[in-house]
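An instance as discussed:

___
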Amino acid sequence: MNVKESLFEKLESKKGDMVQHRRYLHQHPELSFQETATSAYIKKFYENKDVIMTQPVDGSHAIIIEIKGQYPGKTIGLRADFDALPIEEEADVPFKSLNQGVMHACGHDAHTAYLLGLADALIEIKDELSGTIKIIHQHAEELPPGGAQQIMASGALNDVDEIYGIHVVPVAGPEVIGFNKGNAFAGSSTFTLTINGLGGHAASPHKTHDALVAGTNFVNTLQTIVSRRIDPSEMGVITVGAFEAPGGANVIQDKVTIKGTARYLKDDLEQFMYKEIEKVAQSVAVGFDVTYDLDYQFGYPVLYNHPTQTNHVADILSASRGDYFEQLIEIPAVSGSEDFAYYLKEIPGTFYIVGCKPEQVTSPYMNHHPKFEVNEDALIVAAKSLGEIAINRMTATD
């Protein structure tokens, strides 16, 4: 029996464990930088196992597990995130979130579950391995500055030769794996614009400086940045997600607050979008005689999948197509963002997608929706694919 066969045999025996991990974590979600119980659950799992466990970032909940093989080889990093979102769950599942207003609506419970199962299997066959695997259980992916940046700054991954990760997405079922190379996931920034005007009576608008009207003009004009200021061949998205102007029907408001995001697939658009959004805010302030405060937070960089490592992944998975999954598809660039980008800025590797669309569902709810669900067959697909990539790249000479 070769190493892949040994690994897959172990993983098959752990499918039930992975499902149990996922359901427990789903019931007990925690927000970014607050994952105390989740971290404790992960640490307890590794107790009495023959590994080196460290917490690389002081005051955080990140955990790194080092699995040393018997023979020399590369050091490969495998990462899964474990934070949840501030969303009230609406999915009709028996293991629904027990934490009000918090939900694993992005699949990070599934990520952690398959990586726990994979790590357990790798530990059991460590005497057959050549090289070292670092299992990275990462905190705070959902909230910039994000956990990945902190882990990279700690130096805990300075010895890692290559790094790989997965996201589950219900665009297809678990029979589909999607990959892309180059600029693969968008960079993102967030902004909060507060417009301050002069409120008053709805019957006397001429005596006011209407912050709400100024705000609506800001929102409408924002869309011209993408449609008129960015090359049509380049991807750019600006989305306003919140417009807060509480008040009565007969009151012109003093203040409105607008929150949104900017996304882009080229690094040079990060500063460009910021400057253009600032220009729109300035013009609205002049045009409507109001003042403003723009809090602009640069978020995650563009995620760059290294072509060499991505090609290796495609070759490795192509050999297993028709075994535990059916389709390997090269997909277009993704407009979502991921702080895995910080790892790939320093370490060669790639980040890919495993389908998790529930069975008999035509129009699944996507990640970040309160009714988001995961097809748990994706757990074994994720574990096997990431596992065989790791054992192949540990012994690779290129």
Remarks:
- The chain has a mean pLDDT of 97.
- The chain has ten helices and 16 strands.
- The longest helix spans residues 269-288.
